[in-house]
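Q: Here's a chain of 489 amino acids. Please give me its 3D structure as tokens.
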Amino acid sequence: MVSLGWIKGDPSRWKQFVKNRVIEIQSLTDPAQWSHCPGQDNPADLITRGVYAEALTDSPWFSGPDWLSDCAGADLLSSPEVLLPESELFSAAEGEPAAAAVESASADVSSSPESELFVAAEGQLAAAAATSDCSQPVFEHELLKHCGVDTLLTTLRNEYWIVGGRRAAKRVKRACTACQRQDAAALNAPVAPLPAQRASKAPPFSVTGVDFCGPLFCLPKQKVYVCLFTCAVTRAIHLELTDSMSQSDFLLAFRRFCARRGTPTMMYSDNAKTFRAAATSLLAELGPAGPEWKFIAPRAAWWGGHWERLVRTVKSSLRKTLGRSVLSKVELETLLLEVEACVNSRPLTFVSDDVDGARPLTPSHFLSGRVAGVRAFVVDDSDQVSASSLTERDVEHQNMLAKFWRVWQTDYLRSLPHSVRKFKSRGKLQIGSVVLIREDNVPRLHWLMGVVEHLHPGSDGVVRAADVRTAQGVRTRPVQRLHDLEVLD
């Protein structure tokens, strides 16, 4: 009805786009030839609104409405009962609230006086489309060997122009499981905020991360490993040499660490069997007096970045120092302690070129109050050592430590990156989502497929890990290792 109002009206009343087309229509036809076909008599509505095949065969789709074959058909088209008054047509065309026009605009289709011929042609087109492969995007997508959106759209348009064709092609491509198994990108999530345990003042090694690195080789032909403990707050490290990565050797290294650094309040590690078994053993032996042990998500090494980065630093230092040399176990242990001292002397804050600039803060400041390798001030005259002087030194030490913490809070914490570029939000994982679990060094077609049954949101509510039920059991994985197949609506 809106289009009919445009055609029967003055083109100068409409906007440029409509105006140009109305002028063209009026130059080729007489506006009086244009009439309105009621929606209930328009066979096109059967297709546009959806209809079952059985109902379509019994419908007037192929012949048009009954009154077209009647001699009075032309009179019916032009009767006042069918057409709205001209004022209402213009009102509807201009977008004003004409109730009758608005009510019927979504279903009506314009037709010419030779309606029996516009309807017959449409029926033939629909019949051809119903038997043509090009009208079936899903089948065409498979026949074209799971082609892309543009190829599918180009093929379909060889015979028919489909309204919203690109959207339909994308929907077909997205719903194809075979394509998604090969093309679905991994999910992603922004980096989690810094845990409260890492941003709060605490004694060194109260919150500790642990990992193994190695192996190293020493004389006589022995393979050994390095157990690295790192403080999550002060970033200090503690290195222990072990004969293996077994539970018994790790527990001995942990006992040596606790004897020299104190028992941690909280331990972080990956999901290695050694750490899992050690956590269970310490809980049974020490109970509440033992550390609380937290594990990162499996196959998510970047979750343990605060110890993985220091593993790399220690490896680099050992590689450059040793070269191709092979040391005895005692020599290697000595070298390891020297590397520990050097790594603990690395600056945590900005290193200024100004001669009067503040000295950078290092992990050693929290461990010994000074940088490793710097000689401490020694009082030669023992008579000057008294209770009052020791008290003064203790006060000075506490003041110095408080200064270190202020620098740590104002300079070090603020220098940490707020985000990492490669960790951006991508995809929306939901319970029930069908996903592929990416595995390193495994062909994509052999990746496990599963259904998400539980989500693990962080303190900020962002989901960064999920439990996925597969044919081989439940797997907990970070979202970066999950590829959403997008087969759900």
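Q: Can you summarize the key feature?
A: Residues 387-415 form the longest helix (29 residues).
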